[in-house]
Amino acid sequence: MPQLRLALNQIDSTVGSLSANAEAVLHWTRHAAEQGAHLVAFPEMALTGYPVEDLALRASFVEASRTALRSLASRLSEEGLGELPVIVGYLDRAERAQPRLGRPAGAPENAAAVLFRGEVVLRCAKHHLPNYGVFDEFRYFVAGDTLPVVRIHGVDVALAICEDLWQEGGRVPATRSAGAGLLVSINASPYERNKDDLRLELVRKRAQEAGCTLAYVAATGGQDELVFDGDSIVVDADGEVLARAPQFSEGCMLVDLDLPAAAPEAPPAVVEDGLRIERVTLTEDPLPSYEPEVRGGFADRLEDDEEIYSALVVGLRAYVHKNGFSSVLIGLSGGIDSALVAALACDALGAQHVHGVSMPSKYSSPHSRSDAADLARRTGLKFRTVPIEPMFDAYMGSLGLTGLAEENLQSRLRGTLLMALSNQEGHIVLAPGNKSELAVGYSTLYGDSVGAYGPIKDVYKSDVFRLARWRNRAAQERGQVPPIPENSITKPPSAELRPGQVDTDSLPDYEVLDAVLALYVDRDQGLEAIVEAGYEAELVARTLRMVDTAEYKRRQYPPGTKISAKGFGKDRRLPITNGWRERPAH
To answer: Fewer beta carbons below 10 Å: N end or C end of the chain?
Structure first.
């Protein structure tokens, strides 16, 4: 039985950074070659980064991607790596597609290529295009109509791209019909909670359907609101897991595989879904038999809270670094949200790159001031205090505001102060709002919503508390100082914009609120269905009304890491001007 040593490289590409991404491919290919690999694979669109969004419609970028691919093939050969086949994702275009209504201009393709001996020896485009959630691939790409099969050391290797596994039909059953011994799927599958379990079951099922070993190589890192968690997997034809890579880290997973020999007679040229088999032979003869040395290993799975926290850290770090910044600025109120954001920032960037500002007013409690200072001591972040009372008094003397306008003025002064420091010192401001507050509009435009990134934008308030407790517990287990003051976790949440104010003056208890929001926002349940689930009708109606009328605020909130199946942004697209309101049917 022929053998192959497969190298799956889960790397963190940056959208548009073609040169840097190509260097990463070279680096990890060289590493794989040093480890004796016979076939190397990289994630979906590793050369361009993913998702490229409307860059796919820009002809200059498409051509730059195609040129970078050819250059990469040449450089691999020049550096002595030409005999090692490399599978890499990139942006291409259909050569013969005719312009027509409903087809993306220029016929771009989400493509994969095989590089060998200085040449691009095989190209293919993604067959199944996702068009749900954060995906808009009908807008950007045309679908591929081939099943690429490349023969390497006597083994037929079929190729697929991400969604080709998630949807039924297409390249998976075609792989069985083609008699391939290995199916390699390159992927850039965004992280969301519990997706790793779903992904594993999917890969196991598709391997059994394909009738061969399946290697799933995934991207890692972050791109704007998306996080990619790696978790590359290899399973055999029976669905047994042979190897599994770590989550949220770059690296090369090597696996020695025993695979069936390619059939001497080729199967039919056209198989399922009208796919045309495109075959290329690189090396016909099997390798001399060798003793397997690497079995890939099984990386430990992260527990749920650690997994979510890691995703938030990776997303924040990627956004800051990939946009050319090195430091962040956070308004520290002494509350749980800003404390968790500060802890995330310190873990993502290092405390020396995190700047915190306490901005007390006459309504700020002594414990809020001391809790903010305690957080700074625990984490080691850079800390200062700038009272806003003189500025507040100046505005009030000029405007004589009252009620809600007076309360929101305090928040807007803090926002202005943070942005002024950002401009002066070059830090980017982090917005501390959570998903519960964004859902019901419990924030002040141009106040606590200012910033370049919202690290906990997709985290419900009840989860904020849970993650804070997990982070402190993890620190204790490592013999470290817990970063978040206990008082920030245990005291009642409050915006402190008037005497004695607490969040529950305006909102239901967060455990109840978040449960209702999860049904309405994440699962699109209506009022009656939520009431039938056991929640009080008036509370549900009030909550849904707050959500519906806050859409204009959410549109103006900065991007933030997506961790749920439906975050605010591309996942959930509702009109701002909207007369529809959920009401009981009777």
So the answer is: C
